[in-house]
């Protein structure tokens, strides 16, 4: 399925080539069709996040996996392949190649939040904190519930020696996903450190 930018281009082309009544019908159909997958995914994700809020540890692992699976569906096999190749390159430690694949993905699918999140991760693993932060911001603008992006931002803030800001970001991630063990551990560590400094 086409992404918003591609849909807009298709709509403009149809509008220019068709007589007036057909142009209106084409525009309405494109708007309706473009909203269906987003609404369906949002409803499914809403249900998953509602379950996640009250899940026990074992349930949370399964639900988190389901959420990541939903986030990783771009709607385009080509874009999904770029995401897969970028992730595979990261697993192999080839961050430059990962950045190339994921940059191509975000160039072609700028509304796909997971593309930006994966690119932020590749930049972080490559030691490029500035670009990583920029892409985390893009991820969160598109998907404010992205606990993975928030967690990653917390890690970066810790590396930049901004513990108070990191703590605030970690707490925001936990408000979305209360069972993130690494984040729970980070919060405990930072709180204990702050308490020790206060003494």
From TrEMBL:
Q: Which UniProt keywords apply?
A: Repeat, TPR repeat
* Presence of the UniProt keyword Repeat in the record: yes
Q: InterPro entries per the record? A: TPR-like_helical_dom_sf (IPR011990), TPR_rpt (IPR019734), Ycf3 (IPR050498)
Q: Which residues form a coiled coil?
A: none
Pfam families, alphabetized: TPR_16 (PF13432)
Q: Does Repeat show up as a keyword for this record?
A: yes
What stretches pass through the bilayer? none
**Where on the tree of life does the source sit, at the highest rank?**
Bacteria
Which SUPFAM superfamilies does this one have? TPR-like
Q: Where are the TPR repeats?
A: 113-146
Q: What is this protein called?
A: TPR repeat-containing protein
- According to the entry, what is the taxonomic lineage of the organism? Bacteria, Pseudomonadati, Pseudomonadota, Alphaproteobacteria, Rhodobacterales
